Amino acid sequence: MSATLIFDCDGVLADTERDGHRVAFNATFEHFGVPLHWSEADYATKLQIAGGKERMASELTPEFVAANNLPTDRDEQAAMIAAWHQDKTARYTRLVADGALPPRPGITRIITAAQDAGWPLAVASTSAEASVRAILTQAVGQRRAEAFDAILAGDVVPAKKPAPDIYLLALERLGADPSRTLVIEDSRNGLLAATGAGLRCVLTVNGYTRTEPNDEAVLVVTSLGDPGGEPALVLANRGAARPDTVIGLTDLLSCLE
To answer: How many CA atoms lie within 13 A of 180 on its CB side?
Structure first.
């Protein structure tokens, strides 16, 4: 028996937010001479906004625009944000290439096992596609990354998480049965997007998301775990899985029962 697995990227494939995206955003602000620097606490708030361009745009209050002589025209602002985001993405992918953002425990193991078992796999993320492909390649290598059945990223749908659109699109692209599809997410926004699409969801939480409400998740763990490495600690279990310290394919299948 098999299942379709759909992974979020940031916080799931790798712990990318604090020491990856945040660092790249701040470097971009400095490069463009914009007086912004997001602390870890600032960024925790920004994570409630889905999408990098949208996070940047949230700073463009009338007061901030006037104080920094930024364009007031909406089209000009959109072009400016696009340029900032392109620069940020390039900086982020360099961080990934330099090995600064290793895969989270269990990710390489689970993807390898699922592909070897013939399970359909996809990524559904609000991050730029270049960022997603960089993280995925870092985690499993180019051959396995290219073997994914779908990579949906960035602006592929107009309404981003917590809207369910990206997961509905993933189901359509994959031709997947929702009852045999499991999402692996790390945040409440992602959880709501997955369950809004009628899908069951496993949460692998991190420092930014551990205290978020997770009542809709079938299983909540600190990570997928690795033998001889970081163990998976079960925080909530509302399904048939009975995992130990390592989450395996059998555990994921049990989440669909």
So the answer is: 11
In our burial notation (b when 16+ CB lie closer than 10 A, e otherwise), range 214-234 reads beebbbbbbbbbbeeeebbeb
Which residue pairs, CB below 8 angstroms and at least 24 apart, start in 130-136?
Answer: 130/89, 130/93, 131/9, 131/89, 131/92, 131/93, 131/96, 132/9, 134/92, 134/93, 134/96, 134/97, 135/9, 135/10, 135/13, 135/14, 135/16, 135/96, 135/101, 135/103, 136/9, 136/13
Cα first-last separation, the chain: 12
Q: Could you say which architecture CATH assigns to the domain 4-15+102-254? A: 3-Layer(aba) Sandwich (3.40)
**pLDDT confidence of residue 225:** 97
Please name the fold of domain 17-97. Answer: DNA polymerase; domain 1 (1.10.150)
pTM above 0.70, yes or no: yes
**Confidence (pLDDT) at 184:** 98
In the chain, which residues fall in CATH 1.10.150.240? Answer: 17-97
Q: Where in the chain is the domain with CATH 3.40.50.1000?
A: 4-15+102-254
Give the model confidence (pLDDT) of 226-240 as tens digits: 999 999 999 999 999
Hey, what amino acid is at 57? A
Please report, as a single letter, which amino acid is at residue 13.
L
Evaluate the omega torsion of the peptide bond into residue 162 and state whether it is cis, within 30 degrees of 0: yes
Active-site residue numbers?
8, 10
Question: Which tokens is 119 given?
Answer: 């399970």
98: left (phi over 0), alpha (psi -120 to 50) or beta: alpha
Q: Which of 92, 79, 186 is nearest to 130 (CA)?
A: 92
